[in-house]
Each structure stands twice: as C-alpha cells, then as structure tokens.
Amino acid sequence: MSRTLSAPVTVAFDYTRSTGPVLGRFLTGLRDGVVVAGRTSDGQVVVPPPEYDPVTHAALEDFVEVSSEGTVTSWTWVPEPVKHQPFDRPFAFALVTLDGATRPLLHALDVASPDEVSTGMRVRIRWAEERVGAITDIACFEPSDSPAPDPAAPLVAPAGAVDPVTGIVVPVSLDYTYAASPEESAFYRGLAEGRILGQRCPTCGKVYVPPRAACPSDGTPTAEEVELSQTGTVTTFCIVNVPFLGQRITPPYVSAYVLLDGADIAFLHLILDCPADEVRMGMRVKAVWKPREEWGTTIENISHFAPTGDPDADFDTYKHHL
Amino acid sequence: MRDVAVVGFAQRQMPEFDGSPTCVELLVPLFEECYEQTGWTRHDVGFWCSGSSDYLAGRSFSFVQAVDAIGVIPPVNESHVEMDLAWAMYEAWVKIQTGEVDTALVYAFGKSSAGVLRRTLALQLEPYTMTPLWPDTVSLAGLQARAGMDAGLWDERAMAEVVDRSLRDAEANEYAVRKGGSSVEELLARPMYADPLRKHDCAPVTDGAAALVLAAGDKAREVRERPAWLTGASTYVDAMTMSRDLTVSESARRCAAALDLGGVDTAELHAPFSHQELVLRREAGLGEDVRINPSGGALASNPMFSAGGIRVGEAARRIWAGESDKALAHATSGPALQQNFMCTLEGTI
C-alpha cells in the first residue's frame, strides 16, 4: 500500500479577456487574414504590436501591415508536444521575422523532423480554416520557396477594420495527480472502514478532523490518532436556495458545520431528513452512511447528517467553535 | 540602511514528493532546522513570508494551508508572494528596513511533479498571443539557446562545460537530484532532446521546499559568528515578449549594475538551462577567477519557487564557513531569464 492516496484532478477555466485597442487591432487583422504590426519610436516594426512604446511609454498608435511570409531567426524542436500545443506530433517552435517587420513572432512551424529546419529558412503563414480573431488564426508556419523581397516593400497602414475584435476566450485546463497528505490519507482510509479519524495535537491537546500535518495553532506535528463519535452538534449552517452547476440535491437544503463529539474543529456536511427551516444552531445530529457496498476512500461514504431527536446542545458547549 | 544578514538556511529537494502539494509535511522539519540553527522559537520570528503558486499545487489558497506549519496562535505577521523564495526574502529585507521587525523567516515550496511542469508554466506567459499556443518552458529556452549559438556567443561545447562542472560539483550536494560528472565529450555524444538542447542542458523537474532566516544587526551577531550580510539587492524585469533580443538579459545586466560586484569570489547563479549561466556570467561581468555554482546549481536540482532562494542559502553557507568573503546570489523567473534578482553577501561589513 502506498503511503498516500492520490487521484487525477483537472482544473479548467475559460478565461474571457477584453483585448484593448492594440491587441484588438492585431487580432482583427488575423481574423481578416492580415498581419498588423506596430511601429515603435526607435524604428522597430514589432509583431504582435506592443501596447505601449518601450522607450517613450506612449500608447502605440502607429500600425503597419506586414507580409505573411518571413524568415526563421531561431527555432527549437518539440519532440514531446504537451496538450493543446498547435500539433500533437513533433514539430518546431520558431521565431519568424515577417517581411516588413524587424522583430520576430513566436509560432509553430510544421515540419516533420529537425533536419528540415534551419535558421534563415523562408516560411509563410498557414491560415486556420476558420478564423475568429485569435493567435490560433495562424494555424502555423510552413516552409516557403519564395525569396525575401528586394527591395523590401514599403510599409502601409492597414485598411480600416470593420467589426473589430474586442475580446477573446482562452480555455485553460491543467491536469494534476493530486496526493493527499499522509494524515488526510489515514482519514480517507478510515472512512472506507466506516470510521471517522482525527488526530490530537501533543502540545495543545486539540483534536482536528480531518487531521492535518501540523497543528495550526502552534505548528506542532500531529501524530496521535483519535476515532471520533459519529454524533455531533450543528454549530452554524446555511440554507442553500440558489441552484448552481453540478448541484446534486434540489434546493432548499442545508449545509452545516458539524462539531463531532470529541473534536475541536467542525467540518462541513449536509443536514437532511428534516425540513430545512427546522435546522438550528445546537441541533444534535448523527452521520447517515450510504450502503456499505458503495463505500470508497471518500467523505461521500457519509451520505449526510440527520437529527438524533435529542435535546439541543447547550450554547456553552460549542461557543468556542463558531 | 539597517545591516541585515542571512543567518539560517534549510532545504529539501527530491525528484518526486510523495505527499500533499501543500507541503506542510516538508515545512515543519525545515522550520525545526531553522530554530535549531538560530536558537529561536517561532515567537522570535518578527515576519514570515512565503513563495508558492496555486497553479503548481492544483488547488486554491495552498499557501494558507502551509501556514499550519508555523502555528498562528498568537497571530503572526505574515505575507505571501507568487514568486521565488528570493523575492520573498526581498520583501522581508524591506520589512526589516522599515524598522517594524528585526527578524524574518521566509520559505517557499512547490510540488512540480503534480502536473506537467513545462506545460503549467505556459500560464505565466502573455495570455493573448502566447498562452493559447502553450509554449513550454523547454521550447522557449531552446529558442534562446539557438539564438546565442547562431550569433556566435556560445556553442554546444560551452554549454556542455557548464553541465559537466555543475554535475561534478553536485556530487558534494546531498540535495542534488541529478549529479555525477562524466566528460564534455561524453555529454556531447548524448542525443539531442529539444534540439538544440540535450536533456542535461535542462534542469530536472524537482519537488521541494526551502527556508531562509534574516536578522538585523546584533540579532544576527547573536546567531552567527560570521553572518552573511546582505550588502546589496536588486531586481528588474524585461518585457514578456519573445521578440526581445534573447541573447542578452537586459534585466540581469541592470541588477548587476545596481550592485558593487568588486571582490566577489563566489557566485550562485540560478540558471535552469545551461546556456543561461553563460548569459548571466556575461551580464554580471564575472571573471574566470569567480567560483560559479559550487552547489551544482539549478542543473542539479531546481525546485520551483525555492531554487532561486536556495542560491542565496548556498552562498550564505559559504560565507558562514569562511569559504567565501563576498558572494553573489541570483534568482530568475519567467521565460528565458525575463525576471531577475541579485544580491551580494559578505562576511565583514
């Protein structure tokens, strides 16, 4: 048996961002199949355009159109692509200075092996089939046969944009293997046997459930295991009336802090088997377990807490735990 | 300015930590070591500051749980940065300069192995034109390495020499997760990974934690016969974009220019990729006579959020022992040496 329990966890969120006028102009260009660069006060032509001039710090307003072809100025091989990169097979990331620009743009280069890439090689943009106003409107760069223009074409301002891009959505998701601490692992293994385990701090004597690696009051590592009663007192609670994504119980229902007899910290669980408006501070409740064949190493083994019918606990017994 | 010194240092580094990403379990013994080194209890620490990131932990407010390792009754004066330990130390140094406190314990932790580190770090990039491409850390470093090679500023042999020296020195470092020298020829004979980088050019993914103790004036002298006095500290950042000149580090150059580096005999440089040490040596103007990374540096182990501060601790250790009279410590963050911190530590002031 490994020392700790672990489980896969994916944390995901769609970041919605406003673009502002400079990045908005750049992304509008990409949507329309045009690369818009910014000309800075030191004469550089930069893609993507910086929002502020790096020397004068003035807002950038001088936009020029540059070519969709260019030259590789640096590259690196990506032998083991990570999730959501432009390709799920080996490819190159490259810095490409587009014709007309003086500073390079970072993007993927579609070649089959590192032997097919070299600094100085000519490449062109492969546009995405559907363009929405995002950096991924450039699907990638691909090798090109056409030489660099000589002399360079004069830079012109891009045409006025119709229906400019003002926002983007960037979905982000990260995969983890999330491990519980040894103390938390003992807690979950206890639940799989129908027991609720805590730990007592050797310095202050307080009992924590779930157990923690150290007593938050005095920093002492906790070691002594304590099995707790399955009966406790509602210290405080709220009635959930608002529906939300992933909700498993139909509102209204009660979410409460339950101080188990013998514990010094309350933990959060559901109070069911009675009308929500009858739940009160001091109410005595007991753990109601799911059928044993459904148990795992999870707090969900306890379906909920239900009233015992005993008289309410005296306020003094839980006033220090609010 | 008040005289402030590094008087305590503890570290743990490992390829894979079998435990919770909150790392409380790692921090408790680290703090114990700091108390032993200083003769203090937690009540003697005037200010606490931690460095960590929820993106690394895969959970929210992970730094709050880490506070359990301190013990907070009575309440403590505490802060947090989503930056490396070196910057947490910088905040503590400023706090001590204000006169509000005389002592500080700063710590950092991270379980890099919980996710795919080189991918997770794409979230520190510019979110409009970079993050959607998920450029991984190794690729961004590869672009920088090639730019310098193409410009004739370094070559793969110079990079292999950095690796060879680092892994030899790491043999004496009990915390190094990668160690053991071979030869420049043998290193160059190994296959390319992310061309132009071989695997040994890239710091190993490392879990770990570290802590530093700071004290002002006589408080420092009470702890150490020869405290490592912080005689200068500076931090600068470059623009996020990869369209800047990657063969130089303007921010590192500014850090160095803000310090008096005369007489530096030892430098602990935080270079997670071999060529980055070459950039840093040039920007700091370090000569051949300066001992670089006697600990083995980040190529031997690079725990996220503590590896930069560990450079400070390794430098301080050598000052305490009289092996160095003046040392430079450096920390970096962001893609391709974008953010930098430097400080000087001296045995006498």
Defining key terms:
heterodimer; A: 322 residues; mainly beta; 2 domains; five-stranded antiparallel beta sheet; 2 helices; 7% helix; elongated; B: 349 residues; alpha/beta; Peroxisomal Thiolase, Chain A, domain 1; eleven-stranded mixed beta sheet; 12 helices; 11 strands; 21% strand; globular
Weakly predicted, low-confidence segments of chain A: none
From the alpha-carbon coordinates, what is the Rg of chain A to the nearest angstrom?
31 Å
Termini Cα gap of chain A: 38 Å
Mean pLDDT score of chain A, rounded?
Answer: 95
Rg of chain B (C-alpha, Å):
19 Å
Order of strands, widest sheet of chain A: 7-6-5-8-9
SSE succession of chain A: EHEEEEEEEEEHEEEEEEEE
- The global form of chain A is elongated
Number of strands of chain A: 18
CATH class of the largest domain in chain B: Alpha Beta
Q: Structural class, from secondary structure content of chain B?
A: alpha/beta
Count the DSSP helices of chain A. Answer: 2
Question: Which superfamily, in CATH terms, is the homologous superfamily of the largest domain in chain B?
Answer: Thiolase/Chalcone synthase
CATH topology term of the largest domain in chain B:
Peroxisomal Thiolase, Chain A, domain 1
What coarse outline of chain B follows from CA principal-axis ratios?
A: globular
Assembly state of the chains shown: heterodimer
